[in-house]
Amino acid sequence: MSAATLVPRSLRGFVFPLVLLALWWAAVRFGWSSSPLLVAPGQVWQTGVEQVISGKVFAALGASLWRDLFGFAIGASAGLGVGALLGASRLAEKLVGPSFHTLKQISLFAWIPLLSVWFGLGDSAKVAFLSLAAFFPVVLNTFEGIRSVPADLLEVARVLKFSRTQAWVKLILPAASPSIFAGIHLGLIYAWLATLGAEYLLVSGQGIGNLMIEGREHFWMDMVLFGVFVVGLVGFTLNWIASRIEAHSLAWRSRSVAQF
Amino acid sequence: MERSLPLRLDGVASPLDVGIDGGDSNQRDTVLARQSRAAWRRRVAEQTWPPLRDWLLAWPLPLAVLALWALASHFEWIAPQVLPSPEAVALTFKEALVSGELWANLQISLLRVLGGFAVGLVGGLALGVVMGLSPTVKDYVYPIFKAFAQVPVLGWLPLLMLLVGIDEALKIILISKAALVPIALNTYKGIQSVPTRFIEVGKVLKFTRWQMLGKVVFPAALAPIWNGIRYGFTHAWLALVVVELLASSEGLGFMIVYGRQLFQLDVVLAAVVVVGAVGYVLDKGLAAIETRLLGWRKQAF
Amino acid sequence: MAHAGTLHIDRLSKQYEVKGEPLPVLDNITLTVNPGEFVSIVGSSGCGKSTLLRLIVGLEEGYQGEVLLDGRRVVGTSLNRGIVFQEHRLFPWLTVEQNIALGLLNAKFSESEKAASVHEHIALVGLEGFETAYPHQLSGGMSQRVAIARALVNRPEVLLLDEPFGALDALTRAHLQQELHRIWQAEGITMILVTHDVEEAIYLGDKVVVMEPRPGRIRRIVPVALAHPRDRVGLPFARIKEDVLAEFGGEAEAATALRHAFRRDDGPGTGFALPGGLRFAL
Fold first, then answer.
1. Which ipTM value was assigned to this complex?
2. Does the beta-carbon distance from A252 to C87 stay under 8 Å?
3. Chains touching A (3+ CB pairs < 8 Å)
4. How many domains does chain A have?
5. Cα separation of C95 and C272, whole Å?
């Protein structure tokens, strides 16, 4: 019997994690390493439970998420506005576009030191940074979506005598919505990534990133591992929520998108 | 008789030198030839003015910002530590360039990112290919890979710092992780989504396994794979900047942080400009390669 | 019943500029379409028939000559002139009902009148029960029917159809031709159909306008004086068809000669060899 048929399909995904967990537990149990970094799985669990019960993790997470969503909201709305402007007006695109694309090339985190001088080291700098992180992908995708409205459908709007407002509300925005949603989803991902980075680089204040930095400084491996788990969980949840919203709003799409 | 041969901008000869008039100067001045000349001039104008105009339009905004910046720093509306004058930045930039400091830091950063990216590229491609081609491997590996991918690159930073310290190993590992995830994912998805109809053609033509892979699967999957590579590179560059900002004693990121500590914003800005420029160049390079590799695709819209 | 318009096209010419050189697309088109008439326009690719339609509906401008609807010059698009394209061009995010209602967006009716009109037209094209379906759930033929309903719902004076069934399979095409004929008889509005399918042109039209390319010109107008419903395999139909087909292929004389050679005047009811024989000649 080959390994392929040993385990039923639905359970295969658990094999590796369980094996790793077992190895980890064995390493601690049998003292394969004397490093203080080798903490038992049980202890990570314990720390996690403590954090949950004492509410500390929620305080930290709450602070991080609040900043994340606030910055994201600012960046995404600004992004929608600018993206729509660039999409609607070729003149605006020619005036602003090149500068925008140049600024976009600057790797996101390079902005932090500048922002820290202009906004200080506290929450406002972090929120400004997060808005920036969400801004760029939203602008790009919104612009792209508006520009890709098929000319075919624009002709139908002409024949049916749509006014400018009607064309925007009834044709252009719905047609661009898949792209816009994709941009917002991407903005959400980048904002979460940026949240962590902002907490590492602008150390004041509370947050899940700060929790992990604290753990690292005190060599508390269990804390750090717990932090990693929480971060992954939040990332997964945000992704999942965004996907659900996308799927629901774009239910009219079939398997292939370009079937206008 | 010698005739000048004006070429149209699209490389095709103008009507003047298509053999109809055979070199006779009388014929050249016929109404037809004059019309063709006018049409040619119109074509040239049509083809040169729009790009020129577009290039010109790109400048008002940045120049306005620059002017505002110069005024603000000259009249000290904002403290010079917060907003150095454009001249100071330009001077610092020149000094850093001349002293070789800029170049030295740039080199270090580039080496790091290319090294980390190479590791992530090889690992990502290997993982993606293996998961894409073997459903068994995919069943075992994909779930834990997906879970691993949920944690953004920066989430791993404190953990890695504990495990490997803060020297080169940290940077390379982080950068390669940043590149590996999108590359593996896109490679896997790309191979998965090779349309069945192409596979069927291969089967009917009795392709061997290697022929199927080489002539059907990989060419068809190349577009998503390349997408993953571009995305992976952007993330690698991103990770490089962060890790240099946090835990480095040389490189562009370090320059930024160092300048910031000393409130030497001109150094910071100079380094930021270079980061932007490098990002731009690398992105354009990747785009050029993409055109080469994937030129057979037509735009969907 | 909608008011049917008279369309008068007088010496219509149009040219494009390609790389600085003028490219004539239509040359001196003169055509009158009477109220309630069904006119078919046939021609091979490049004869400008689609451009002609787009000029009439107002999607293209810049021409010499006159296009008059009920004596008034046509300027830009208007709800008086509807069009059905070869692609259905439905909005994918709207249901069948909502897509048809788009045609009434700028019409001056009350909400209840609009709703009634939408339902009436859904019934007209035979799509009761599909009101809340999305385009991706419909077949090609059904989508085209929605497009027809959308074009008719605000009761235009003239309906233009640009190869509406070209993207459909032969069986659906035949079925939809019958449907279009039924709708035309029910609504009584003027219709102009552009097609490359000669049989379709003769089946539906009161007259067939044959166009030739480079530049687009009217070669001949063939009246179709057959009673409805028309029998596609009957001899009178076949005669008109070979008449029209003879206009294509360049050597009309050679085609005529072959026609005489193969002709068998057996009277109505036979008519099997002729169309096929003529096709070889082309």
1. 0.80
2. no
3. B, C
4. 1
5. 45
